[in-house]
Amino acid sequence: MSRNNQARDILTRSGIMPVVTVASAEQGVAIARALLAGGLTAIEVTLRSAAALDAVRAIKQATPQLLVGVGTVCNAGQVRAAEAAGADFLVSPGTTPALAEALLASTLPSIPGAATPSEIMALLEHGFECVKLFPAAALGGITRIKALAGPFPNLRLCPTGGIGENDAAQYLAQPNVLCVGGSWMVASEWIKAGDFAAVTASAAKARALIDRLRG
Ligand code: 3PG
């Protein structure tokens, strides 16, 4: 399967992508177990904490059935570090020309970030058809997603940023949206309080939503 199709497959199968920033590898494993218990099948661990890559390794070991992406990938060094940690896929908030080259050179499927038509066109030129639209809500949300469908019929999106439990369904109902990303299933107050049952409950609601919309 081409990496483009792999990316498409990951997003389609996931439906909702929990975006997680971890304080430690142990915390990452607890979150991953809680998400899996709720029925979600993928997780994006952001490179926004020192523990991120250790957490990716630990999550891969503890919950091998979960697809583990590395997010907030901004440069070639981070692409290589994510590969070395055993990531299943890569996600970026935006895409510089150097990052696009590094993602193309990687063996891993990736979901590169874009916000504007020109950025999307640059990604399509590189052959990336599955794109993270970020920050989705601030960019105009559903209105923008509908507007992008006309000029870019092959583009498939994973809108992320500012999306919550209450509007995820509206995003998922768009034909050019494969998956919705967000951190609402891993609210920082739950994580701080060690309330992983709340994470599982939220993940289960997300699972039910995907099943209802996607059958
Ligand atoms: C991301 O990195 O994709 C975002 O931080 C997730 O956005 P959210 O926290 O607004 O859901």
At a glance:
It contains ten helices and nine strands. It has 215 residues and is α/β, with parallel strands linked by helices.
Task: Please provide a written account of the structure.
By secondary structure, this protein is α/β, with parallel strands linked by helices. It has a single domain (3-210), classed as Alpha-Beta Barrel (TIM Barrel), CATH 3.20.20. Helix content is 47%, strand content 14%. A 6-stranded parallel beta sheet has the order 5-4-3-2-1-9, with helices on both faces. A 3-stranded parallel beta sheet has the order 6-7-8. The chain is globular, with a radius of gyration of 16 Å. The structure holds 3-phosphoglyceric acid. Residues 19, 46, 71, 134, 160-163, 181-183 line the site of 3-phosphoglyceric acid.
Number of strands: 9
Tell the overall outline: globular
How much helix, percentage-wise, in residues? 40-55%
Q: Trace the largest sheet across and list its strands.
A: 5-4-3-2-1-9
* CATH homologous superfamily caption: Aldolase class I
**Which kinds of small molecule does this entry bind, naming each only once?**
3-phosphoglyceric acid
The average pLDDT is 97
Strand content: 5-15%
Q: How are the elements arranged and paired?
A:
Elements: H1 3-14, E1 16-20, H2 25-37, E2 42-46, H3 52-62, E3 67-71, H4 76-84, E4 89-91, H5 97-105, E5 110-111, E6 113-114, H6 117-125, E7 130-133, H7 142-149, E8 156-157, H8 168-172, E9 180-182, H9 188-193, H10 196-214
Parallel strand pairs: 1-2, 1-9, 2-3, 3-4, 4-5, 6-7, 7-8
Helix pairs in contact: 2-3, 2-10
